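This part of the workshop introduces the protein records we will be handling. An example says more than a description, so a record of this kind follows:
>
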Amino acid sequence: MALWSIVALVCSVGVLLSLVAGVVATALPDASASHWSDRCRRGFKAFLATLTLYIAFVLMVLAVRAALA
């Protein structure tokens, strides 16, 4: 039971960090992204990039932990 709660915590932290990065990227003003859909597209790209990096980081930590065990 404790393992599932840790997995849920790690997943929710990753989604929350990615969501914050996407919202910040959408909210920042940019002269090249004048239309709202361009800003949403930029925020979605930031969301995906952050989530991908978070997943890679978690997998790297798990691989190092498994190698040391």
In short: Residues 4 and 10 are 10 Å apart (CA to CA). DSSP finds two helices and no strands in the chain. Residues 36-68 form the longest helix (33 residues).
